[in-house]
Design a protein that fits this description.
6 strands; alpha/beta; 13% strand; 9 helices; globular
Length: 231
């Protein structure tokens, strides 16, 4: 499924008193676009600095402050791998939290930004290197990572959900589990929600011998010229 479809399932399953948490990568931008926070279905976003690793400890904080309702982290697999050990804290404290991992096999938002600004990506997908370290790119097969086993090894109730019905069932089960639950959902890395239309001030190289970079620099400068300042 796409990440947008996954968010739709989370929205359908949300009840009054639930809070969903996101911080880095695609989830905060996507939730900002489509999450309906009416009816007591709250959304806690850290968007100012895109703090990778914020999500899990923040969800523990939400649970401590909010004893009722579900406390759910929506997190990419790249960010999840940065701080999965907070699951141990949740287990230790007996905190009922749910971690939904959107598994798109890498840091796909950063890869998308590389493509937008340089015309090529590097090092942001979980792929094997295809030759010598000094010369070969990381463009081989995807790594076979078992995030369910990782989460289970840290004490969480962990499952892989491959269909909308499986995600719904896992969310229902997580509500009554006494400790942390992790739901891993494979998502398409190349299908995104519609653009927000917001210009992103990230520059391409000013000088380059690559035609793709030269063209993207031209596009960047056109965007910079149209930037509006509000005093």
């Amino acid at each position: 499924m796409t990440q947008g479809q996954l968010i739709g399932i989370l929205q359908e399953a949300a009840r009054p008193g639930d809070t969903i948490v996101a911080a880095a990568g695609g989830p905060p931008g996507d939730l900002l676009k489509v999450w309906d926070a009416t009816g007591g279905r709250s959304c806690h976003l850290e968007f100012g600095y895109s703090c990778m690793g914020f999500e899990l400890p923040a969800t523990l904080g939400v649970r401590l402050a909010q004893p009722d309702g579900a406390a759910i982290a929506l997190i990419g697999d790249g960010t999840f791998l940065m701080q999965p050990t907070e699951l141990v804290t949740a287990l230790q404290e007996g905190l009922n939290v749910t971690v939904v991992v959107s598994e798109n096999r890498g840091f796909q938002v950063i890869r998308r930004l590389q493509l937008m600004r340089n015309g090529a990506g590097f090092g942001n997908e979980f792929r094997t290197r295809t030759g010598p370290l000094a010369t070969a790119a990381l463009d081989g097969e995807y790594l076979d990572l078992d995030l369910v086993a990782l989460a289970a090894g840290l004490g969480a109730r962990a499952i892989r959900a491959g269909t909308p019905d499986a995600v719904r069932a896992a969310l229902d089960a997580a509500r009554i589990h006494p400790g942390p639950s992790v739901i891993v959902v494979a998502t398409d890395p190349d299908v995104n929600l519609p653009s927000s239309g917001v210009w992103w001030d990230v520059a391409s190289a000013e000088v380059s011998g690559l035609p793709a970079v030269v063209e993207r620099r031209r596009e960047y400068e056109a965007g910079l010229a149209g930037q509006r300042w509000h005093g």
